[in-house]
User: What shape does this take?
Amino acid sequence: MNIRLLCLMTVLLLSREHLIAQVPVNDNCGNASFVYLDPTGNTCISDNNTTGTGDGISNTCDAAAIPPLPAGGHEIWYSYVASGTVNTISVSPSGATPAEKLSVTVLTGNCSGPGVVNVCNTAATTGDPASVAFTAAAGTQIWFYVTALEDDGEFLVCISSTNGFINPALTCTNASPICNTYDFTSPGSGQPGTSSVPSCFNSPPVRPFWYKFTVGYNGPLEFTGFPTNIGGFRWALYDITLGCPGTEVACNSFYDPFLPFGMSPFVVNCTSSPACPPINVTSGNTYALMLDDTSQSNSGFDFNWGTVFNCFQQLIFL
Assistant: This one.
């Protein structure tokens, strides 16, 4: 067969396969997929850019896509309405064919403007997540896109749009949810809640309040709470998968007004500091964290998850 004819047939075959591959509806800004946030201002979606095309735009975060990817990669677009002033968008590789070296860009304004970048970020390495944080007035519609700089594939997008604080609940049954694995600030509680007496407490809780979370993967649980005022928190953790009051799985009654509390791999017991060693938690199980403000000062705290912990994400498949 003539080499020229063989080359022509190869080109035609590749072109046919490209046409067969369905380009995503949200392949450009004007057709951005609208993402609905849940009542807490959070949600996660699963998507991919394997059949996406380049828009011919790029910025300082995504211009260095590796050929044959174009500068900016194959962008997939989204939009949502901010429900709070504090907004974060995180993108992570996921699935059987994860995207490599993800990047996320948020625009200032909408698709009809010049596409000025508000904020952008690119993953440090192939398998790392990328995230951005910015402020916006509640009710503002936000446009952003996700791309990959090394290889297209599947990814998870998580959006949080809140006012920064997550208020606690006063009972186990009504415990406030604290996932999508975002760090947060608790304002504390100005009134006492209700709680049974944890096994390690030598007196009943004086001002207990509650948070809860559902685990995404089996593994160790690590977290740290840094008091924002004169704190002094005793705490207990319960597995409430079958309902409250649940089963106590960790307890710490060592409180100090200025020391952080939580679960840390750097401690060996629950009796010599406000922290306990990590425990292994079970995927799909729900846990409730009861915190007792012994100072009764209405102190809050800044809460940080450990690097190896994952909450269960409610997925919306596009």
Summary: Confidence is low (pLDDT under 50) at residues 5-20, 313-318.
